Structure formats: structure tokens, C-alpha cells
């Protein structure tokens, strides 16, 4: 039950170590607090192992890479692997530059990653080695639609198997798979793409869900995706004349803050294939 | 027509590479999304050339310099110059420290800059080599007022010629010139100065306008200044009892998000000298 | 009188140099503007001395350390000491990693610090050399309650004497002492802990208060603590159905923006021991 996944986060207050970009870091921290977790940020190589050791999981987001933070990602990731903590990778902008694509691939190869969350263009860039990523947004040509859904589900299952982890590809339709089963999720609003960082926020929250639900991680990842999409719907319902993307950002985080397990269970729109 | 400048941004979704400070970076990303563009942030020297290559323009903001981001600015700037992309420079805090003044001057000398946007104290610091900048805010003694307007227009025209680019000096009265013509703009609210980063936001949005309007960049820069000031007026009109600068920030970005070309055309308050 | 402390900030617009973490930096800037000060951020070692020299005080926050920002902290701190500027230290996450604990201790030893502001677990980690800090939040076992208050007041007085500075320990009950006198403050709301960075914001604002009130710094520090807690109460009073931690963040900063000296005087809930 999705609601149990949410409940476990609120019950256990998972501590999440984030090595994330400086663009959306504040929203990532607030959404982790909103869902019931506790965030800590640290990317300095000399600091990350100590921080990871006191946390329950690690969220690696490559949105603004630095040479030192890349080293921090590997050191933290290795420590998290040693400790058996879940590690999530958000390959922001993979396909947009060689450094991003290459770093994301190396992280996938050298670390044991629990889950990857990205848009379809980023994931294709990781699989195919080159991509058509339009900056940090997915290319329209890649979009998962009802028409391309069957193919897309097959691609996501296959890629999850190739990566050896859970794969969450988010967009108009979200797909979350462990290689065998695939959740097809239809929550969310297109206007979420007009806010910076809803993807980063989801990655942070998903890490909290993975930490809090060690026995059913696929469902936990799917629950986080449903929660984010549902928060987008609830937040949109509270928009007033004159409100725009800045207020929408606040309302989405507010909706995560107030979301109950029952609300999630009722509002989640998904099928399992 | 200003409204055509805005319309071109919404039509073409210009991708803007930002090397900007970590204080206001989230607001810069959201305002670029709000106006119809698409932002990407990257300052790592090994990453910037690849990112600039897929973008349409480059926004360089020196609000929080690091040795590595300075190198990133030059590498990205040279690549943008090669590709003929517009490059905007926001010399935040020029005059406040030798590193800031010196870096801004070197960027102006070594790169082909399309537009500079700053407050009057920052621009004077660049021209005179030393300044009376009060931190990141303009010195009251430098302020452009109705009394000093004629002189200020002459100074801005002359400086635009000396820099060889468009110069936008923003404050109570905003001046935007290419060295020949000068837009004198009277939109905005004094309370905008009580929010961090309205200048940085304008620089990000102006870069999107410059990318989307290659044939009429002076007008595009002026349109961005009018849009920001008008958003300040619209946002202020929506303030309720108890609201302060944090809510005002959200309402300004919201106003950019909702602004139509007609609204901009009607609300813009400017003369050309 | 607390209201005079607030009045001095609004009257003198203290310029505050912040070397702070990238998670909450935007909120720190906006809260300093809200209370009547003017923020500038700079952590690059080559830049910090120039920036500190034009400011009135320095706020050092170790929330996201980098090797270069650590060097920046020492260089800025030494310059501020030379100039007789107040220096505040916020030891975010001391106890959570060796780098944080060690850096905070070295800063305390090598710089003349005017005030330290942290949660009880961070302060215990600095005193005892090791701590039970739960990430960036205080450990429940350490909490200052009515039951443990007498002990806690004695600990804070003793530690303030040991540090040779003002010590502000914030939590459900806030304690602010110069080693002789201790303000016991009961403003605030528990929900403030569900927003990232209310502590960082307070540290930024407290630095502005210290700069503006050189003759009565203990009272100024206490006034800043009361103002933050009261803003949490006022902001909470403005929450509507569906609002959560993101909106609450905005409302707290808004309350600081609108707070009058009379409102602070009337709303402050404290005793002196």
C-alpha cells in the first residue's frame, strides 16, 4: 500500500545526505522536511564520509558539478555502499555535456546504485551514450505518450535490468520499474515543468522513501512519484488569479507537507504492468 | 514593439546558460522559466563549453566569485563568442572589492559582451576604476533622479559607446542605451530593493530576451527592463496586509509568468532620448 | 529595551558579510533585508578581506563547508577582528562530522568571536568534543525543557564564559547569555523546525543586530532571538488551510519585514536569570 510507504517516512524521519546542485537545493531540503524526512547537505570530499555515516541514504544529483563535488559523490557513494544505505542518482542534464554524461555513467558503473530518477532524454543519453537532451528538459521527440507507452514500458524495464536498479523515468506519464514490474503513473500537471527543480525535489523525497521502506523499495519509489504528482494536482487546485510558477512551487511543497496516507492512496493514479 | 519582444521569448523558448551567484540562482531559474525561456546553470570549467554550445545565450553574474567559476566565465564566454551567442555581464558588487572590479573589467576587455546590466555605482566603478558601491546596492549619492537625469543619460550613452555594447543601468529610473539611443524607463517600485536578487533576475530574463530577438537587441533589453518593473508594480498591487519581501518576491515572478504582450505594451512607462 | 535594538537596525542599515551555506543563503539574504540590514555574500579567499572591510560585521555559518570557504572564513575573520567588527559563528552540524566539529573549534580558538548561535547538540559537541547531533537538528535527549532548564542555564552561562563570547542556544526554549546574565526566551513555534534554515536566518539577523547595537550586544542578541520566535508566531497565525512549510517560510520572513519595535516589545516572552 502506498499509504504505508508514506507512513513509514513520517514514522522514522529518515536522515538523507544530499550532494545536489545549488540551484534547487533549498527546495530539496524543504520537500524532504515536508514529507517527514530530515535533510543534510555536504559535498566537500573531506566531509562526506562522516555525514553519510550518520544518515540513512544518499541522494546524488549532478545538476551543477564541480571537480570537488564529483570526488565527494564517489567517496560518499562508496561509504554508503559499505554501510548498505540506498543511493539514488539523478543524472540532471545527462546528454547536455560530456562531463555530465560521463560522470553519471561512471557513478552507475563504480557505485551500487539503488535507484535512478531522470527524464526520458537523460536516461536515453545514459543508455545510448549520446542524447538529444534540451538542456535540463526532455526533448519533445522522446516524450512518453499513450501512443508510445508500450515501447516505453519495455525500454524502462530493459534499462532497469541493464542498470541493475530501480529506474524512475518521469514526464507526462511516469514509469517506475525494477526490471520486472513497471508502475505506470498518471499523476501530475504539465505546469510543473515551468518550475525549476520539481525533478530534484522528487529525487530527494524518493531517497527518504527508499530509506524508510527497505523491504519494498519499488513500491516506495512509485509512492514518492505518485505523491509528487498528486501534490502538483493539489497545489494547482489552490492557485488563484494572478498566481504563477513561484507560488505554485510553494503550494506543491505545502501539499507534500499536508499529505496523509489516505489522501495519497485515494489520489494516486497508476496501473502496474 | 515591446510586446513582440516578449512574444518572441514565449515562441522560441530560448535556452540560457547562467554562470551566476548561489544566493539568487533559484529565483533566476524561475524567472527565466516564468518569462518563457529555459535556464541551465553550470560554472565548472570542464563543463561550461559543452553547456554553452547547446544554449542560445550566456548570462555571467559575478555575485559570488570563485577561482574556478572565474575560469568558467572566460571559457564559456569565449565559446559563446565563437558561436555568436549574446553574452550579458552583471557586475554584481563591482567597486566593493578588487576581485570583483578587476574580474568584471577583464571580462569586458577579453570577451565580446552584448549587454551589461548593473546599478549606477557598479557601472561607475567599472568606468572610474574605483567606486563607492555600498555592498551590492547603489550608493545614494550616485542615484539617477529627475534632477540628474540629463547628465545620467549622457553618461550612460557615453559608457555604452566605451564598452561597445548595450548598457542597462537600473535604479529608481532605468536607462538602457546602445550609445546612440537611450530608453528612460519609469516602471518599478522602491520596495523591489528590499528583495535580494531582483537585479540578478532581470539579468537572467534580459539574456532570454536578447537571444530571442537578435534583430532588435536594444529594444529587447528595454522590454525586459520594462517587464521587470511592471511585474514589480503588478506584484505590489497583489500584496495583502502582513505580506512582506518574501511574498513580494513570489508575486513578482508570478507576474512575469502571467504577463501578456498587451499587458507589457500598456504598462510600460518609457520615453526614448 | 528590545525595541531600541530593532530600531537601531532599521536606522543604520548594517551591512553584513555572510560566509554561509548554499542551502539557505537566499533566505538569509532576504531576512537580513527584511529586518533592515543589507547582506553581501562572499566566500572566495581572494575576495573576502575586501568585502569584510566595507561591511559592519561577519556571519560565519559552516552548513556546507568547502576547503576554499574554510580558508575564506579564517581570512575574513582575521580581517574583521583587526577592524573590530562583530563576528558570529553558527556551527551548523558540529558533532555530525569531524570536519565540522574541528572547523568550528578552530574558528573559536583562532578568531575573536562575538557570538555563537547553535542548537544544544551542536554546542555540546563543541564543548565535549563529540556529540550526538542528529544531522543538523538537535538530539531530543539534549532538549532544553522546563524540567532541565536550571541545569541548561548553568551550562549556557558556563560555556559562554569558556568561549569568552555571547552564546545563544536555540530550541523549544532559547537561552542567550554572556556568561553572567541569561535571557530565557519562550517565543517561537515547534513547526519552525520543519522549515530548513530558520537557525541560519536567525544567525544572519543576529549579526545585523550586533552590528547596529555595539553598546548592548547581549540585549541585541536576545532581541534578535525574540524577533525570530515572534515572527514564527505571527507567521503561524496567518497560515490558511492547505498551507505548509514552504508558505510558512515566506510568512516568517514577511513578519520580520513588517515587525515594529512596539510589536517586538509587546510580543517578546522572556525572563532574565
Task: Write structural notes for this entry.
The structure is a homotrimer of 273-residue chains. Chain A has 273 residues and is of the alpha/beta class. Chain A contains 11 helices and 9 strands. The first copy, chain A, has a 9-stranded mixed β-sheet, with helices on both faces. In chain A, strand 6 and strand 7 form a beta hairpin. In chain A, helix 1 packs across helix 9, helix 1 runs antiparallel to helix 11 and helix 2 runs parallel beside helix 8. The longest helix of chain A has 21 residues. Chain A starts with a helix and ends with a strand. The model of chain A has no long low-confidence stretch (mean pLDDT 96). Chains in contact: A-B, A-C, B-C.
Structural features:
11 helices, 9 strands, homotrimer, alpha/beta, 9-stranded mixed β-sheet, 273 residues, 14% strand
Please outline what is shown here.
Three copies of one chain form a homotrimer. Chain A is of the alpha/beta class and 273 residues long. Chain A has eleven helices and nine strands.
What is the gyration radius of chain A calculated from CA atoms? Answer: 17 Å
Q: Class by helix and strand content of chain A?
A: alpha/beta
Gap from first CA to last CA of chain A: 17 Å
- The residue fraction in helices of chain A comes out at 40-55%
Global outline of chain A: globular
How would you classify the quaternary structure?
homotrimer
Low-confidence stretches of chain A: none
Strand order of the largest sheet of chain A: 2-1-3-4-5-6-7-8-9
Calculate the mean pLDDT score of chain A and round it. 96
Largest sheet of chain A: 9 strands, mixed
Largest interface: A-B, 33 and 34 residues
Secondary-structure element sequence of chain A? Answer: HEHEHEHEHEHHEEEHHHHE
Strand content of chain A: 5-15%
